[in-house]
Amino acid sequence: MTNNTTRLDHVVLWVADPVAAAGFYVQAVGLEPLRVSEFAEGKVAFPSVRVNEETILDLAPHTFADRMRMLPGSADGAGHPVNHVCLSLPADAFDILRARLQEQRVPVTSVGHDSFGARGKATRNFYFRDPDGNVIEVRHYDE
After folding, report:
1. What's the angle, vertex CA 32, arms to CA 31 and CA 33, rounded to 5?
2. Signal sequence: where (predicted)?
3. CA angle (101 as vertex; 64, 132 as ends), nearest 5
4. Residue 73 has pLDDT above 90, yes or no
5. Are 124 and 93 within 8 A, CB to CB?
6. Which contiguous run of DSSP H or E holds residue 32?
7. Which residues contact 62 (CB under 8 A, 6 or more apart)?
8. How confident is the model over 19-37, as pLDDT tens digits?
9. What is the number of other CB atoms lying within 10 angstroms of the CB of residue 47?
């Protein structure tokens, strides 16, 4: 890994209950929890879940939105969901995640094909919502 390449570091998702949201992303999606106990103890402002060694999802409570003052007007857009976040997985992990979500009765869309993304056309993709309504897309590319 080099430090001179642009990468996606994190995405902030607005959630009602960060601990419950972390539990969903750990149990249903299979991501690694970060700082959940520290958040529950009041030591940090929000927990996160790790997507890969370089990228995390921050699970910010809606009450945190009024703190978004990094630029003039930032608080006005805080708390609004993004359209969706897309996770790219290997084909076998794609199948495992889809099955796990269905086992846990998380509604998923039908499988789509040839949707365009960062690496061209994905072989397959599907969507689901987390308990806070954030839309997650999952895809895989032929390697």
Report:
1. 115
2. none
3. 20
4. no
5. no
6. strand 32-34
7. 14, 15, 16, 79
8. 999 999 999 999 999 999 9
9. 25
Mean pLDDT of 102-106: 96
Segment 112-117 shows an average pLDDT of 89
Within the chain, residue ranges assigned H as helices are 18-27, 36-40, 74-77, 91-103
Q: Hey, what amino acid is at 71?
A: L
How buried is 39 (Cβ within 10 angstroms: 0-12 exposed, 13-18 middle, 19+ buried)? buried
Buried b or exposed e, range 6-34, using 16+ CB within 10 angstroms: eeeeeebbbbeebeebbebbeebbebebb
pLDDT of residue 133: 86
Ordered domains of the chain (ranges, CATH): 1-80 (3.30.720.120), 84-143 (3.10.180.10)
